[in-house]
Amino acid sequence: MQKYAIAIHGGAGTLLRGQMTSEKEKKYINALRESLRKGFQVLEEGKSAVDAVELAVKILEDSPLFNAGKGSVFTATGDHEMDAAIMDGSNLEAGAVSLISGIKNPVSLARKVMEDSPHVFLAGSGAMKFAKEKNLERKDDTYFFDQFRYDQWQEVKGTTNVQLDHTTSKNSKFGTVGAVACDKNGNIAAATSTGGMTNKNYGRIGDSPLIGIGNYANNKTCAVSCTGNGEFFIRSVTAYDVSCLMEYKNLSLAEASNEVVMKKLVAIKGEGGLIAIDAQGNISMPFNSDGMYRGFKNSEEENISIYED
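That's the Isoaspartyl peptidase/L-asparaginase family protein sequence above. Prediction below.
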């Protein structure tokens, strides 16, 4: 019988026991659990891996706890610029958007690009025009305003510094969200979404919307969603590198993902992690930071974690 499963992440970085209140930790766990269970329910109903990862990511985008969608951080100009990508491993179709604002669920716009356009990647005003044509749900600035995020921006506003999401140790938490899934037909998919860096300037784009870097899916190998310091993931073509090690060196999912995260990224001082799944429903979730919001679920087991256990 085909094993179906889903894995999610909500960012990686300096996540240490005792640094977070038990109340806030519970909120993170509950948000991750809702995303995980609703995404898995889609698979149980016999729907596609693409459907599952889109819904799981949408739920995380709707939470102010994570740096994506509603919880997106402020740019240097006080705006929100969001990125997202989705990929179908059954046919290598993919869609991605970058530098968009006001869209409630960027991952759904990325799926529209994949399914309703001849393109893979749309950005800025062009992506926004496409979103309007496709009637994507929009929200005004008040929806995206979060006092914690605003205060975080105030700390670095007017400087050239950027901040990688909120933490007691700045520059060490990476607030991307993502999901990977394998459905009952053995098809796999990946989706990733982010609000980028606090106080980012110059239209900076990270790894999340880049196919083969922050997001990738291929039935022959694996589906991957990354979270980390995007510049290092871009330089190492992280997601596709996992796939390549499986395809060309015949490494297992666990071997390939650990090789990339624990050796190749570490060698260039890249911090973060990834979640990955193959067409047999095997899951790997390595990270080289202190923690990563993460979870996985299949018909036999469910697990949600934050710290390095």
